[in-house]
């Protein structure tokens, strides 16, 4: 049998894809443009934070020695000699027996070792009466408590979330080195496809995959380029695949099966695409192709994925193969969907031989102390509602056919999963 037609397991196919995947180049961008991108450098703090000892409360900076009597029942009455607000500096060091009115975040005067909360004081003219004394050193945020100069604050390979964005700024960075976003062309194929808003003939369906796949690409942090649909026509398909090959990754959706008008295989052969597989032992998403398109001179090779046209198969196949590829290209360390183990809430039967990714609703059962999962809808590969209702994919082993209620199975958690509890 043609080697290409020998069906690979999901794990073998994944290994092949990842072995061909190169990490993207890097670029320097303003930190405001880093959100959602992956850092290509370890971020070292150029500034310490906070830059000086400062007050964690609105109150009075004092020397603890001067307020000890409060704990023995005698309020301390101290003259207020200065006021420091955030953005200001103390005028002088604190002398024995003095207090300085101080706001949250303001630098502490020299010699002050404690801040008394304003709630624990009253005012008597230009004196403060301290009613309750905190412990020595209370309400002070020491200089450098968060970060110190030279400290590594974010590691390379981390995707920038709002917290990292704030840290880049705090640590004194204006620019950061990030991995370039892969560009992914999305080409839907099929004579039956029409765009939303088109005047639909009765023979047409809406090209939903172009939307879900572009969304998946974006969800991975990459840039989709949605191409115009190609009909089931060799020449049109050839032109479109060449156009798609200008990107880092080309995704062709539909037409990769064995139907009479599934021309993708022929066209890729003609274009000299080096195919690694056409089918994988999985369900849904069995007709799924991967190859390398050498492209024109001067162009770097494009990874080409052929995903099945059925809307659920297409998404499931994307999560198994394109998702880890895009993550690796962006320099991320963890490549796959987060996996947990869940107890089945229902019996599931299947034909063995292919790994089944069943759309599921998984929730954490606090009483049982475990995840529990049930199917999110009918199993048909065209039933997009099952995907809309799902927060996860059950990974049902190719080696079994009968899964019983209460059995524990691996579950892939989808990005942005919503849990019911
Ligand atoms: P194919 O993989 O081309 O054999 O298509 C399999 C099934 O998926 C058929 O029912 C198609 O009509 C449907 N299909 C193919 N492409 C799309 C698409 N872009 N959007 C929605 N459904 C599609
Ligand atoms: Mg088709």
Explain this structure to me?
The chain is of the alpha/beta class and 421 residues long. It folds into four domains: 3-25 and 180-329, Molybdenum Cofactor Biosythetic Enzyme, Chain A, CATH 3.40.980.10; 28-47 and 154-179, Molybdopterin biosynthesis moea protein, domain 2, CATH 3.90.105; 54-141, Molybdopterin biosynthesis moeA protein, domain 3; 338-413, Beta-clip (Beta Barrel), CATH 2.40.340. Helix content is 17%, strand content 30%. It contains seven helices and 28 strands. The chain has helices at 10-19, 162-170, 208-219, 234-244, 264-270, 311-329, 384-388, and strands at residues 26-30, 43-44, 54-55, 59-62, 76-84, 99-102, 114-117, 121-124, 127-130, 140-141, 152-154, 175-179, 183-188, 193-194, 205-206, 223-226, 249-253, 274-279, 282-283, 287-293, 302-307, 338-344, 348-349, 355-365, 370-375, 392-396, 402-403, 408-413. The strands form eight sheets. It has a six-stranded mixed sheet with strand order 7-4-6-5-9-8, with no helix packed on it. β20 and β21 form a beta hairpin. The longest helix is centred in the C-terminal third of the chain and has 19 residues, at 311-329. It is elongated, with a radius of gyration of 31 Å. The two termini are 51 Å apart. The mean pLDDT is 95. The structure holds adenosine monophosphate (AMP) and magnesium ion. Magnesium ion binds next to loops.
């Amino acid at each position: 049998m043609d080697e290409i037609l020998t069906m690979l397991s999901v794990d073998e196919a994944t290994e092949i894809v990842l072995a061909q995947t190169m990490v993207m180049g890097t670029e320097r961008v303003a930190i405001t443009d880093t959100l959602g991108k992956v850092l290509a450098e370890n971020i070292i703090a150029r500034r310490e934070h906070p830059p000086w000892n400062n007050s964690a409360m609105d109150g009075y900076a004092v020397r603890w020695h001067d307020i000890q009597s409060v704990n023995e029942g005698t309020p301390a009455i101290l003259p207020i000699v200065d006021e420091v607000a955030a953005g200001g500096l103390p005028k002088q060091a604190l002398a024995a027996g003095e207090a300085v009115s101080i706001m949250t975040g303001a630098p502490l005067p020299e010699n002050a070792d404690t801040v008394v909360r304003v709630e624990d004081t009253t005012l008597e003219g230009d004196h403060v009466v301290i009613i309750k004394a905190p412990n020595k050193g209370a309400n002070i945020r020491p200089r450098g408590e968060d970060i110190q100069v030279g400290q590594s604050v974010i590691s390379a390979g981390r995707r920038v979330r709002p917290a990292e964005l704030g840290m880049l700024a705090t640590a004194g960075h204006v620019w950061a080195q990030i991995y370039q976003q892969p560009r992914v062309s999305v080409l839907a194929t099929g004579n039956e496809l029409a765009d939303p808003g088109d005047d639909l003939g009765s023979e047409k369906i809406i090209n939903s995959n172009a939307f879900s796949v572009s969304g998946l690409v974006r969800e991975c942090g990459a840039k989709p380029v949605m191409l115009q649909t190609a009909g089931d026509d060799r020449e049109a398909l050839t032109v479109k695949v060449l156009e798609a090959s200008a990107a880092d990754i080309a995704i062709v959706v539909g037409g990769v099966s064995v139907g009479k008008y599934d021309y993708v295989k022929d066209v890729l052969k003609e274009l000299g695409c080096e195919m690694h597989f056409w089918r994988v032992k999985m369900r849904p998403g069995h007709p799924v192709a991967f190859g390398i398109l050498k492209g024109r001179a001067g162009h770097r090779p494009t990874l080409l994925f052929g995903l099945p046209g059925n809307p659920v198969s297409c998404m499931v196949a994307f999560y198994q193969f394109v998702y880890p590829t895009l993550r690796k290209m962006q320099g991320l360390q963890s490549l796959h969907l987060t996996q947990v183990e869940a107890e089945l809430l229902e019996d599931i039967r299947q034909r063995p031989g292919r790994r089944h990714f069943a759309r599921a609703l998984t929730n954490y059962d606090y009483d049982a102390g475990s995840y529990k999962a049930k199917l999110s809808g009918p199993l048909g590969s065209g039933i997009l509602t099952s995907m809309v209702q799902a927060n996860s994919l059950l990974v049902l082993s190719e080696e079994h056919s009968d899964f019983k209620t209460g059995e524990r199975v691996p579950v892939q958690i989808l990005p942005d999963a919503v849990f019911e509890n």
